[in-house]
Amino acid sequence: MIDFKELSAYAAAFTCSENELLHKMEKKAADIYIPIMQPSAMAFLQQLIRWTNAQRILELGTAIGYSSIRMALVTGGGTKIITVERDPAMIEEATQNIKALNLQDSIQIVDGDATEDLPEVHASAPYDLILIDAAKAQYEHLFQKCAGLLSDKGIIVTDNVFFHGLVCDIDAVKKRQLNRLVKKVDEYNHFLSEQPDFDTLFLTIGDGMAVSTKKTFTAHEGER
């Protein structure tokens, strides 16, 4: 049987960074474990932005600015990205990386907790695409907050929904804190699948991605 990690690595080998700074960010993230999107997941997200021509994007979880930079690069500067981060060190580094590529007009970092109501986030709504990539234990809460900020044809993308494959065998996770977190992610996946107003597709890309779109109801269905 083919190992999923090996297959993911094979797919990732066909992706590449747009510039040297991004390559350095990827290396640093790997060396000291900064949570950034896996290459194949990032490539899919970029393609999704191309397909939908997203003009307003909200990202929850900036880290060092890797995802927001790659999203901005694929749009050619025509998109406004609002990205939320609460870690001061991450904000400082992300700001430096964004300025190094002269993307500060396209990317706005909001200093705050993504689970709270942030005026800067609401001011730029509605969003064509929302990326949830923050605290996994808060995914369900974040989705509920995001749903009201989404445009009618918008998309919510959630990263890391397979959590290194641990969601497939939760009982095998013996560390108590990790086990609770994996259960939270699993509960979130079930929550997504049961949303009456959203259709969600789960993809085996990167560490697992969920793509959620609003359901469209016909006039006949609305009368039921």
TrEMBL record:
Domain of life where this protein originates: Bacteria
Q: Where does S-adenosyl-L-methionine bind?
A: M37, S67, E85, D113, A114, D133
**Family under the similarity heading:** Belongs to the class I-like SAM-binding methyltransferase superfamily. Cation-dependent O-methyltransferase family.
Q: What is known about what this protein does? A: Catalyzes the methylation of 5-hydroxyuridine (ho5U) to form 5-methoxyuridine (mo5U) at position 34 in tRNAs.
Name the Pfam families for this protein: Methyltransf_3
**Which example biological process does GO assign this protein?**
tRNA methylation
Reaction(s) catalysed (UniProt annotation): 5-hydroxyuridine(34) in tRNA + S-adenosyl-L-methionine = 5-methoxyuridine(34) in tRNA + S-adenosyl-L-homocysteine + H(+)
Sorted alphabetically, which InterPro entries does this protein's record hold?
Cation-dep_OMT, SAM-dependent_MTases_sf, SAM_O-MeTrfase, TrmR_methyltr
CDD domains in the record, alphabetically? AdoMet_MTases
Q: Please list the residues that bind Mg(2+).
A: D133, D159, N160
Q: Which residues cross the membrane?
A: none
Assembly, per entry: Homodimer.
**Protein name as catalogued:** tRNA 5-hydroxyuridine methyltransferase
* Enzyme Commission number(s): 2.1.1.-
Q: Which UniProt keywords apply?
A: Magnesium, Metal-binding, Methyltransferase, S-adenosyl-L-methionine, Transferase, tRNA processing
The molecular function terms of the Gene Ontology recorded here are: magnesium ion binding; O-methyltransferase activity; S-adenosylmethionine-dependent methyltransferase activity; tRNA (uridine) methyltransferase activity
This protein's species is Sporolactobacillus nakayamae
